[in-house]
Amino acid sequence: MTESLADGFEPVSFEQWSEAATKGDQEVALRTILEDGVEAKWLYTSEDAIAADPAGLPGQAPFVRGTRAGRHWQIRQVQTQPDRVKANKEILEDLNGGVTEITLRLGRDGISISTLDHLSEVLEGVYLDLAGVALEAGAAAPAAAALLTALWRENGIAPDEALGSFRYDPLGTLARTGELPTSPEDALAAAGALAADTARDWRKARALAVDTGIYVEAGATAAWELGIAIATGVEYLRAATAAGLDPAEAARQIEFSLAVGPDQFLEMAKFRAVRRLWARVLEESGVDESARFSPTYGVTSARMITAVDPWVNMLRVTTAAFAAGTGGADGITVTPFDQMIGQPGDLGRRIARNTQIILQDESSLGRIADPLAGSWYGEELTDELAQAGWARFRDIEREGGALAALRSGLIASSLAALADEREEDLKHRRRVMTGVNEFPLLGDDGTSPETVDRSSVEILEPDVTGETFSLPALNPRHDSTPFETLRNAAAGSRPQIYLACMGSIASHVNYANWAKSFFEVGGVETVPSGALEGNEDQASTFKDGGFELAAVCAGRNQAPEDLADLVGKLREAGAEYIYMVNSTPELNEAAMNAGADELIKNGANLIEVLTATLGRLGVEVKS
Prior knowledge:
- The chain is α/β, with parallel strands linked by helices and 623 residues long.
- It has two domains: 74-427, TIM Barrel (Alpha-Beta Barrel), CATH 3.20.20; 485-616, Rossmann fold (3-Layer(aba) Sandwich), CATH 3.40.50.280.
- Helices cover 43% and strands 13% of the residues.
- The chain has 21 helices and 17 strands.
- The protein has helices spanning 14-22, 84-96, 116-122, 141-154, 170-177, 184-201, 213-217, 222-242, 247-252, 264-284, 313-326, 346-362, 376-399, 402-408, 410-427, 481-490, 505-520, 535-544, 560-572, 585-593, 606-616; strands at 31-35, 38-41, 74-79, 101-105, 132-136, 164-168, 179-180, 206-211, 254-260, 296-300, 331-333, 469-470, 496-501, 525-528, 549-553, 577-581, 598-600.
- Strands 3-4-5-6-8-9-10-11 form an eight-stranded parallel β-barrel, surrounded by seven helices. Strands 14-13-15-16-17 form a five-stranded parallel β-sheet, sandwiched between helices. It has a two-stranded antiparallel ribbon with strand order 1-2.
- It is globular.
């Protein structure tokens, strides 16, 4: 094909397009505000180019385009099975199934490990010089690192062959739990010492992690996540250099772990931006151009994982993994779709790892470098996000750094306000979650969650002595929680509402489908009338069904007087409360004048309306 797709069409100028897009209304802004003032224009042209080659080359400073051109990212899977024998079996299954790195979560919500023998049992059969082992042990990370290094030595793993990440993140632990077993200053000093020891003894291992998961769960937007990540990285960089490492060596001891959500382009830009910002920090620290990077990992965000309709989690994590992979992440952890309903099962773990394998190999994403590069939209979005993240970083630094911002409450208060705003968007469906606040699935979802007994999990204690330090922990708020509260309250009682649908199915189906999605978000099953002969039949069907509530779904071609008559007949049939599903202004007015109790439409507060609806059906919703 050699001819242009535009052949035969008159050229259109940007001004002509703008005029048509705004219909002549110059007050209409041809852009969408994403978050933190970051904007997405509706159309980008070459005039939006921010530089001839703003992202540079793959594998070169400022590493916007990543560090792994031509190489696959690492597939890292988290293991939380408390039973050590089962955990070992699952780890070997994961590795044989394509996983390249394993994360061992220790503690009350993870594997029962407190001794070297325990760790050896869990990792029996794992080739420790081929498969990287990452640790999630909270404040006990240095003690867990000591166990892992002892296991390396016991298995004869050479110091330059051991693969692992101890992931000590004392500030992240403080933010999540509100406690450290020692002062934060001592914890940072211990982090620096661990980094220095690791750099000296285990060349391919890393000691420290900057994990943004808790901050995103507590409400962080992409810009705040970037700002907190860079500020925390600076704290660890200072700690490691204070322990004797030069800045380049210190950077090699840090890995960034970003929470990845379902906003594809924003997340792609976020990974590009974090490398740019960190390269700037390392430049100011005197690091040579070729070493101005630390590995960046992506973990599908816990904030978006739901217990209701968990199958949809597969879609969310696939989009997130796609974004992280194409954004240049060095490794990705995909959350099993059944994470929130119990211990992840075989299917959940298999789908999690296969999601990445399909993206890398069958979709060939592992063979490409930075597909966003050169896109006017992608480059400008990366730049805007980097600027916004740098501004948040400067806010934190003015507070005295990441630790000071945790102590003063700057981070907690800022994220809480953002979480409130996000929750309001979800409640009013300005932000949509399929299966949660739109298109819910009622009834059996077909899952069989495994429950595990964690009462006897052995805990690895931090190897420190001193007075415990505490401050208020951040408050994780998952997106689906308010809606799951409604659904859990309704479960078992099967509350119902009658949909009084007027006219033919073709005339009312859109209104009925909207009402179905609206009420079933709260666990209220809708029973549509279908196309009935008239209002007498509607009233009779309502009464015979033993319903208490009704919602009128009237198409635009209904007569106002007929609608008013239906409202009256439903009331005579015993309707205790009648909703009018938003239609034309004339029909809405007719229904309300006839005695309908409430008009429901897009933008309504779902939680308020549905909590009241459940209350009218005798279902108490406990906050």
